[in-house]
Amino acid sequence: MQTVQAETITAPFATTSVSPEDILQQLVRQQKTRKKWLIVQPMSTTSMMVDSSSVSMPLNLIMVATVAGRLFDITFIDERIGDRIPDDLSPFDVVAVTSRSLNASKAYAIGDAALRQGKIVLLGGVHPTMLHQEAGEHCTSVIYGEIESIWTELATDILQGTMKPLYRALELKPMSDMHRPDFSYALASKRSKKYSSRIPILATKGCPVGCNFCTTPTIYGKNYRYRELDLVLDEMRYHQERLGKKSANFSFMDDNISFRPKYFLTLLEEMSKLGIHWNANISMNFLDKPEVAELAGRSGCDLLSIGFETLNPETIKSVHKGSNKIGNYEKVVNNLHQNGIAIQGYFMFGFDNDTEESFQLTYDFIMKNRIEFPVFSLVTPFPGTPYFDEMKPRIRHFDWDKYDTYHYMFEPTGMSGETLLKNFVKLQQEVYKGRAIMKRMQGKPFNWVWLANFMMNRFTNRLSPEIYM
Fold first, then answer.
1. Which residues of the chain are modeled with pLDDT < 70?
2. CA distances (Å), origin 8, targets 4, 27, 211, 410
3. Contact 282, 305 (CB under 8 A)
4. Percentage of the chain surpassing pLDDT 70?
């Protein structure tokens, strides 16, 4: 790991009565020229459809640019849409890169190249947070979790040239301090039309449920924070005005937007007055109540992404996902469908309790309940989770490029790896056959979900078990 010593600006205060923010602002005023940041969203190297077609604007990285842009000059690059990182990094003082496990090797390569050119290199995102010692070998400093909660300390150290190897907040800032994301950083790219038209937005952070395969509790602990409703609604109105239309499309990026029912239902009631459309990831803990689904539909919800995960109650228990009650699955689906809300349903395979029958049960459930957009993945123990620690002796490899939930990580006790992959491919091909699509989608609005199904038809036809090895 390399620590960069830049030209030091001396803090003019000798008394502890001055706040860290005051010291930072004094340092900012002393700058002769603003330091320049290169902020990078790296592309993944996975063979699966992760960075294909349109991609979401990277909200977390846009937030980094928004916060840093108040003090520094920002260049924003998103490799997923075709932006290229320059070989010569001499115009920049700081190179900041985000990373998940599936693009960690790419992020590390970018960090290594920037270090060789003498830059301050910041690595953040889920993977560097989970494995900050590993990530520290490829950067000046690792940002643990969100940048907003350590920003004053980090910015001060950058200006003084006194970088620490790890920045981790002792406590997380309330979301009321969160600035409205400045999307102009991402939209400035000539290739910005490759972004999805859905606007990412954030109302809450954290999820106290504690599923043992999820990274969120490691990052946020048991904290659950939320923005004041007026801030969320004002942000929506801002985008309506920016786009010149009421029917703006929003995607909530929250880990679990419905965890506090009173907050969630009040938000929905207020959103129903705006004329927008929206989707979100959501747990199903109270979607079995018809009035909740009715309010969601009335507020403009057109799709909810739900982690059904499995039809096996023992598996649900083993991964500590108490919000999932299999007896309520069909009721939840029916409530949503009755209110015009489509479902993106997530299903995982490769748990020790899985058998060949698990695939048939899942197929039957999807077809009977006409799940509009089923998404299938292989169980992946991600670094930093309790499940990773539990399964580590059985994990086949630690090639982060393949930690995309589409590669075979370990052999379940209930079947061989060969049987797992054969059935995994067969299920996807059966669900996305032309006649299966027509049966699931018949009578439903012709929109992007239809298009996604036909893209999946083409994609699944090319699948083979070997791809997942």
1. 1-16, 46-53, 319-324
2. 11, 10, 45, 50
3. yes
4. 94
Q: What interhelical angle do 261-271 and 290-298 show, nearest 10? A: 40
Q: Give the number of other Cβ atoms within 10 Å of residue 451's Cβ.
A: 11
Distance set, CA 51 to CA 280, 291, 463 (Å): 19, 37, 18
For 202-230, the DSSP string reads: -SEE--TT--TT-SHHHHHTT--EE--HH
Whether this model's pTM surpasses 0.70: yes
pLDDT in tens, 115-148: 999 999 999 999 999 999 999 999 999 999 999 9
Report DSSP state, residue 104.
H
Joined together, the tokens standing for residue 273 give 């007055």
Residues in the chain: 469
The answer for residues whose C-beta is within 8 angstroms of residue 140's C-beta and 6 or more apart is 1, 2, 3, 4, 115, 119, 120, 121, 122, 163, 165
Q: Which of 304, 232, 305, 303 is nearest to 274 (CA)?
A: 232
Where do we find the tokens 């940048």? Answer: 147
Tokens of 64: 């980094």
Beta bridge partners of 166: 142
What domains can be seen in the chain, in order of their start residue?
20-168 (3.40.50.280), 198-468 (3.20.20.70)
